[in-house]
UniProtKB/TrEMBL annotation:
Gene3D superfamilies: 2.60.40.2500
Record's keyword annotation contains Signal: yes
Leader sequence residues: 1-22
Organism of this sequence: Granulicella tundricola (strain ATCC BAA-1859 / DSM 23138 / MP5ACTX9)
Record carries keyword Cell membrane: no
Pfam families, per the entry: CagX
Keywords annotated in UniProt: Plasmid, Signal
Protein name (record): Conjugal transfer protein TrbG/VirB9/CagX
Amino acid sequence: MKTPTTLLSGLILAGCTAIGFASTTPSPAHHLQPNPPRTIAVHDSEAPPVVRTGILQSTLIMLPAEEKVATVFGGNTADWVFDGGHVASRFISVKPKVANSTTNVHIVSDHGNEYTLQLTEITGDLDQHFDSKVFVTPGDQPGKDKLAAMPVFVPAAELEKAKQETEAARAAETAAVKAQTTKAEQYRSSYPGTLHFDYSWDPRKGRELGLQQIWHDDRFTYLRGQFQETPALYEMKDGKPSLINFDFADGLYTIPKDVAHGYLEIGKKKVDFNRTGEVK
């Protein structure tokens, strides 16, 4: 039979054991759950709406379809990640890196609307529901009117893209000019080698008419002289003469073809010319 003292000691021991067991039993873990997407109207005269975020979770903030993000200012950039993407869009992703932290975020749209939100991480809350997607809209009429107007700001991503495109176009233009200059220099350096002074004519008749020189390159035939009047120019083909179209300036005939045989004539003065070695 147990004595009262023994019974009391057993009860105390049992009670302590129960208390110790209760104190070491972990409380049920809270699992973050995403809320359904919701819309927040931002009013200039009211406190910033609260957006619930979760550690290691991304919350997507979406501007109205008419707008794009021009710039984002985050209050606590050390403990929070703000990502607007590399292409101008209406989306911003926010993600807390530290539990139970808070910060604010200011979003300026390309239409000039400003949206300020308060962000809070909910690890310490009994309610473990966080906002996975939030649509923000202007709550005041002036902000709504801006949606129908033209954008007033260029998003930084679009500005950088335009800058890169301008620099690329400038570089391409510089390269094209350089290539053209190089081509022109090469042509000028090689052009003398394309000139051929291989014509013959009667020097006496040439002096009477004023003819000084005849030459050709790969495309044109040239005649130079000091003429009191502009002589007519004929080409001989198959023993028959035909008038030639030409440009004449400052005593220079420029004929847009290769002429092997021909003659100049004015009044009773005439001088035939032939390319050396060519069969008439």
